[in-house]
Structures are given as C-alpha cells and as structure tokens.
Amino acid sequence: MRTPLMKRKANSTAHGDRFSDERIEAVWKKATVVAGVDPSKRRKDSCGAWIEFEKYGHTIDNGTGWEVDHIIPVSKGGGDEISNLQPLQWQNNRSKGNDSPASNFCIIKAR
C-alpha cells in the first residue's frame, strides 16, 4: 500500500524538516546585495522586496521576514539542492506556492 504524501509546512525541506543553519545562510547569500547596506543584515529577494537575515521565518504582513523557497516545487520534483533554493519575502513565497514556472507571484516589491 502506498503512503500518501505528507503535506509540508511552508519553509521546510523536501522531507518537511527545518533547514539547517548552514543551508539558511547559503540561501541568504543568494539574495541581492544593495550598495550601502550591510549584506549580513539586509538584502533584497528576487521580487525586490527587502528581507532581513534575523527575520528568517517571521511572518508579519508587509514585513522583512523571509523563507527558503524551492524554485522547482517539491510537488513537481524539486529537491533541496542549493541551486533549487532561493530566499523570498514570506508573502512572495506563499503567493508563489507550487507554481512552476512561477510568474506574477511578487506581491511585496521594492520599497
């Protein structure tokens, strides 16, 4: 008998686990560095939304919290390879959902 797929929580590995600190930092480094801003603290996601390293996992509306996104969703065969992960402001990540290829998912943009 086949086991049904478990529903993963947002911001988790393909197996539903928490990302390691090392993986979180590696994904953070993929965000866009902005001149004049400390890149260890603030960067921009691919939508142009500000994200803050210390706000990883924070989900306050229109805030700078962010999550690790699977570029190719797990539901479509994507894995936890660093090349398939990107940092996204949490609302942008939730808007993207399982879309692949994703388009028009940026709801929080440059401010």
Automatic annotation (TrEMBL):
Native organism: Phaeocystidibacter marisrubri
Ranges for domain HNH nuclease: 36-94
Single GO molecular function: nucleic acid binding
Keywords for the protein's UniProt record, in alphabetical order: Endonuclease, Hydrolase, Nuclease
UniProt xrefs under InterPro entries: HNH, HNH_nuc
Name of the featured protein: HNH endonuclease
Recorded superkingdom: Bacteria
